[in-house]
Amino acid sequence: GAKKVTNKATLWYVPLSLKNVNKVVEVPPIQYVRKEQEDEGKKRYEEQKLDRLETKQRNGDVIFPIINPEPHTVGYSQSSLIHLVGPSDCTLLGFVHGGVTMKLMDEVAPPRHCKTNIVTASVDAINFHEKIKKGNVITISGRMTFTSNKSMEIEVFVDADPFVDEPRERYRAVSAFFTYVSLSKEGKPLPVPQLLTETEDEKRRFEEGKGRYLQTKAKRQAQMQQA
């Protein structure tokens, strides 16, 4: 019967005008309990801004299917999902809920890399670059970027195809990094097969993922010490 924390995150939102959904309106100021709370929030804000800039730089990337890939390579582990946005996916204004998009992104994680039970450990720098309308067809693509001994990082893109009668072409709507761990039937972490990088881009993304992994690990250790 004891309670324990299972998930923890900081979510960022922007308010939109009800008359013009493309216009971002100002956020009313809030009263902080203490000065440290405001400083901590500003620090997280600056960190997520840097994450967004880093992720936006990849918005030109496209994940192409690979024919007969070798096991444990980036091509072998990548996957995609196509989804038609319906009314139940959207807000009253006809735009997709962020939670719906996140769920679809989580489902595209490639489990066949290690062929075991995969669970989500964390989500880093998920960025909603542009809104997705009802009736759009979205393609969610995932590719593995990094593996440690017991975790794997997946980069996920969401591309939206607008209405047939709209002049706009496909655009990048959302992007993020998901980290997963492999578990046994007893719920214990299992070793993850190492990712085999083949191209220079894959090697570069692996090193970038390693940097994010070490940074996240250090941040978690610091939080545990504070707790």
Question: Please, could you describe this protein's structure?
Answer:
The protein is an alpha+beta fold and 227 residues long. The chain has one domain: Hotdog Thioesterase (Thiol Ester Dehydrase, Chain A), CATH 3.10.129. It has four helices and five strands. The protein has a five-stranded antiparallel beta sheet with strand order 1-3-4-5-2. Strand 3 and strand 4 form a beta hairpin. Keywords: Hydrolase, Serine esterase. Pfam families: 4HBT.
Strand order of the largest sheet: 1-3-4-5-2
Structurally, the number of domains stands at: 1
Average pLDDT across residues? 88
Class derived from helix and strand content: alpha+beta
H-E string = HHEHEEEEH
Low-confidence stretches: none
- CATH-defined superfamily: Hotdog Thioesterase
Number of helices: 4
CATH architecture: Roll
Considering the chains and any ligands shown, give keywords for the structure:
227 residues, alpha+beta, Thiol Ester Dehydrase, Chain A, five-stranded antiparallel beta sheet, 4 helices
